[in-house]
Task: structure prediction
Amino acid sequence: MISVVLNGYKRAEYLDLQIKSIKEQSVKVKEILIWQNYYKNFNNKIDKKIVHANCNQNLGVWSRFAFALNSNSNFICVFDDDTIPGKNWLKNCMECMNAKPALLGARGVRFASNKKYIVGQEFGWNNPNDKIEKVDIVGHSWFFKREWLSTFWRELPSLKQSKYVGEDIHFSYVLKKYLNIDTYVPPHPKEDRSKWGSDPYYAMKIGTDKFAISYNTKRQKEMDDILIKYISKGFKLQFLDELKLKGFYLKNKIKLSRIIKKITNK
Result:
C-alpha cells in the first residue's frame, strides 16, 4: 500500500496533471494527500477523495514530511510540485525497495565538496542510469517506509534553520546515522521513460521557472550553509574521496572538472 503526498505553492496550474499521473500509476496508490502552502490564487477543485490541507502560511519544504504522518500506508512517496512521474515510477521504487530497503528518489547527487553545494555527479531523469545508483541525497521525490518518519523527526531542524531548504540532506543524514540506511536512485533506462521519476520536459519547464528554489541566490546560500552544518554533525559524503581522485575537489579555490564546468555553465 502506497500513500502519495503532494506539495503545492505557486504552481497550481500543474496540480491536475500531477494528480492524473499519480492516478495512472501501474501500482495503484491507496490515497493522495496534498499539503497546500498558502497561495491566494489557488483555485483548483480538489477531488473529495483526496485529503487536502490548505495552510494560511507558507511553511516551506519541511512541513509536508510532518503532514505525511497522516498517511495510512506502509510506504509513502512525497513529490515536489514540478515532478510528473512516469506510469511505472512507483512500481520501479517498490522493486528497488524489495531488493534493498533504502531512501529512493527521482534525482540523486554525489557532492563534489564539503564546503559548497556543488554537484559532482548526478543520476535520474536528468542523467539516466541503467542500474540503481548510490548517492548522497535525492530530490524531486522521496520514496520510503512510513515508519522512517519517526527517524526523520528524531532530530528537529534548528530554530534558526531555513524552512525552505535542507530536508533532503536531513533525511539521508538521519536514516544513515540511526538506521544505517543508504540513499539510492532507481534505474532510469533511456529506452523506458515510464520508469522515470519525472518527465524531463516538465521538470525543466517547471523546475526552472521564477519560483525555483535552486535559482534563488538567497536559497543557494542557505543550501551551502545547510550542507556545512550537516557535515559538522557527521554527515558523510560517501563519494567525495572517489571524486577527488577524478579531479572533483575544492581546496581554497574551487578546482572544477570538465563535467562540473558544464553543469556550472548551465
Notes: The longest helix spans residues 217-233. The chain has nine helices and eleven strands.
